[in-house]
Amino acid sequence: MKKVFCIGELLIDFVAENQGKNLSKAKEFTKKAGGAPANVASAISKLEGKSVFVGCVGDDPFGHFLLQILEENHVDTSMAQKSDIFTTLAFVSIDEDGERDFVFSRGADRELKYDTSLKKEFKNNMVHFGAATAMLGGNLEESYNRYFFDALTKDSFISFDPNYREDLWKHKEDVFVKKCTPFIQKSHLGKFSLEEAQLLSGKKDLKEACAVLHEIGVSIIVITLGKEGTLLSTKNFSKTIPSIEVTPVDTTGAGDAFIGCMLKQISAHDSLDALLNDEDRLTKIVALANKAGAITTTNFGAIESLPTQKQLDS
Ligand code: ATP
Questions:
Q1: Atom 29 of ligand 1 has which residue's CA nearest to it?
Q2: Theoretical Cys-Cys bridge with 35: which of 9, 88, 91, 289, CB 3.0 to 4.6 Å?
Q3: How many domains does the chain have?
Q4: What is the pLDDT of residue 134?
Q5: Are strands 81-83 and 56-58 parallel, antiparallel or unpaired?
Q6: How far apart are CA 184 and CA 36, in angstroms?
C-alpha cells in the first residue's frame, strides 16, 4: 500500500454551540481539530491506509492538541512542524441544513518550511495538495510549490483539492484561478465542488467545465454534488454516481472524507494507467467515497465524524 502525503493546514475550528448562521450571535464555542488536508490524512488513516501530514502548528496548547488528535487517528506526524507563531484559528457556525459560516485568524500554518528530505519519500507514493490556505502566501505557499515540483519529478500520484473559500478570495478570484492552474495541469486526480469546477474552468455547464479541466491536464475529475452524489469524469467517460440517503446535521469534512476514501482505495492500486481505463473500478471507488462523505454529514465535527473501515463496511 502506498503512503499518502497530505500537505497543507491543520487548525483549530471553534464551532459555535448555539446553532445559527449568524456568527455574531454565537456565545459559546467548542474546540475541534480542522483543516482540510489534515482531515484528509485522518480519513485515510481511519480507513486503515497510510497517511503522513505535512504542515505547521504553533508550539502552544492548541498545536499540541491538534497533533495529538492526528496521532490518535494513526496519522504519521513525523513531518509536521511547530512554530513560535500561534496556531491558526477558525470560528465556525453551522445552520439547520449543515452549511457553514466562518471567520479566520491565520497563524502558524503559513510558517511551513520546505524540507528536502521529503523528496525521496515521494517516489512510488502519493501526494495530496489541499489548497485552502496554501495559496494565501507565506512560507507555506513557497514550500507547497516546491513539494509540488518534487512530486512531479518523483512521478508521485498527485491529487489536488482547491478548497476554494469565497470569503478568502473575494475580488481576487482570478489570482486564485491562476495559482491553481499548474496543479490542475499536472494532477492525476482533481476534486472539485460545483462552484470550484465552474470558477476554475470558466464554464457554467458541468460537461463543458470537465472538458476544459481535462484540456488543462487533470486526468480524473470528481465533482462533489452534496446529496446528489458525485460527477466522475475521465477523458473516456463521464457519469454521475449517486450518494446514499442520510439526514445530515453538519456537512463539515464530507468532501475530505470523500477524497480521503478515494485516495485510500487508490493507494492499494498498482497501476494508475490500468485504473484510468477501468470505468468499473473507478465507479466503485467513487461509490464507496460517496458513502464515506454521507456518513460524515450525520455527526458534528470533521475528524470525529470520519468513518472507520468497519462503519464503511457495514
Ligand atoms: P467541503 O465543503 O467539505 O469541501 P464538498 O463541498 O466538496 O465538501 P460535498 O459535496 O458536501 O463536498 O460532499 C462530499 C460528498 O459527500 C458528496 O459527493 C456526497 O457523496 C456526500 N454527501 C455530502 N452531503 C451529502 C448529503 N446531504 N447526503 C448524502 N451524501 C452527501
A1: 227
A2: 9
A3: 1
A4: 87
A5: parallel
A6: 18
- Residue 10: predicted pLDDT: 96
Q: Where are the alpha helices (DSSP H) in 30-172?
A: 36-46, 61-72, 119-122, 138-153, 166-169
Helix (H, G, I), strand (E, B) or coil at 288: helix
Q: Which domain holds residue 72?
A: 3-305
User: Ligand 1 within 6 A of 267 CB?
Assistant: no
**CA–CA dist 167, 157 (Å, integer):** 31
Return the pLDDT at 4: 98
Q: Is 290 a pocket residue for ligand 1 (Cβ < 6 Å)? A: yes
Task: Please work out, in degrees rounded to the nearest 5, the angle formed at the alpha carbon of residue 230 by the alpha carbons of 211 and 197.
Answer: 40
Quote the pLDDT of residue 20: 64
Q: Whose CA is nearest to atom 15 of ligand 1?
A: 293
pLDDT tens profile 178-216: 999 999 999 999 999 999 999 999 999 999 999 999 999
Tell me how far apart the alpha carbons of residues 208 and 198 are, in angstroms, rounded to a whole number: 9
**Is residue 248, in this structure, part of any structural domain at all?**
yes
- Is 314 contained in some domain? no
The b/e string for 55-78 (b: 16+ C-beta within 10 A; e otherwise) is: bbbbbbebbeebbebbeebebbbe
310 in a domain, yes or no?
Answer: no
The CATH number that applies at residue 145 is 3.40.1190.20
Sole residue written with cell 494532477: 187
Complex prediction ipTM: 0.97
Residue 258: DSSP 8-state:
H
298 in ligand 1 pocket by Cβ < 6 Å? no
Residue 313 lies in a domain: no
Per-residue HEC secondary structure of 183-220 comes to HHHHCCEEEEEHHHHHHHHCCCCHHHHHHHHHHHCCCE
In the predicted model, residues of the chain with pLDDT beneath 70 are 19-21, 97-99
Q: Which atom of ligand 1 is nearest to the CA of 230?
A: 18
